[in-house]
């Protein structure tokens, strides 16, 4: 009975909930994966908005778009593309792991699965970075 | 009464989590297509102006990019909502967050469609 009452009681407000993302004491690898998943997700949501704003340059005609393309081909911009691809790869691959664990499919051996995904992500990032700078 | 409310909240959270998973799975497909078509097979990594106009004028491409925009917007909105709910908002603020994200999401999709249709008209 006491347990039921405790379960139905609203959780007390947590102090500094964002800092709790980085509390990896109980689960180091999974903890960092969770924190980085949240950070990359927020960064990608911001990038999505930025991407729509940048595409509005197309409405200005060829001159505006050519100006943007010239900027987008500078080494600094290409480096940011690689950071973006890292964010997409990490968020996507870790998202697959979270979906499998959350649905109960990938619970056994999830740490090994995460390591395999990290290895795949590193390979994909190296290939993508090479493509970005070689294009 | 309290239990019914919590049960509904739990069901809603579960449904939204499932929507996040399904939109994430779809994103792997449509974002992959978007990246390959717009960046990896294009000389120089970006389409020039004439190429962009020709690209968005293809009805199939328009449909794929529209699906991509809708799916990515839903996934992003649900993700941002989860982060903001982590901050423990009051019921009033939580409802405001939900409505704000719905409005921003509809605005983003509407703007994307407007942009694509404007470019089609320029082609």
What labels describe this entry?
heterodimer, A: 135 residues, mainly alpha, 6 helices, 76% helix, elongated, disordered N terminus, B: 123 residues, 3 helical TM bundles of succinate and fumarate reductases, 88% helix
Protein model, in words:
The complex is a heterodimer of chains A (135) and B (123). Chain A has helices at 2-8, 17-20, 28-55, 62-72, 75-102, 110-134. Chain A has 135 residues and is an all-alpha fold. In chain A, helix 3 packs across helix 5. The longest helix of chain A has 28 residues, at 28-55. Chain B has 123 residues and is an all-alpha fold. Chain B has a single domain (2-122), classed as Up-down Bundle (3 helical TM bundles of succinate and fumarate reductases). Chain B has helices at residues 2-40, 49-57, 59-86, 91-122. The longest helix of chain B has 39 residues, at 2-40. The radius of gyration of chain B is 18 Å and the shape is elongated. Chain B starts with a helix and ends with a helix. The model of chain B has no long low-confidence stretch (mean pLDDT 90).
Low-confidence stretches of chain A: 1-12
The greatest interface here is:
A-B, 36 and 38 residues
Radius of gyration of chain B: 18 Å
CATH topology of chain B: 3 helical TM bundles of succinate and fumarate reductases
- How many individual β-strands of chain B? 0
CATH architecture of chain B: Up-down Bundle
Number of DSSP-assigned strands of chain A:
0
Order of helices and strands of chain A: HHHHHH
Quickly give the structural class of chain A.
mainly alpha
Profile the largest sheet of chain A. none
SSE order and pairing:
The complex is a heterodimer of chains A (135) and B (123).
Chain A: H1 2-8, H2 17-20, H3 28-55, H4 62-72, H5 75-102, H6 110-134
Chain B: H1 2-40, H2 49-57, H3 59-86, H4 91-122
Brief write-up:
Chain A is mainly α and 135 residues long. Helices cover 76% and strands 0% of the residues of chain A. With 123 residues, chain B is mainly alpha-helical.
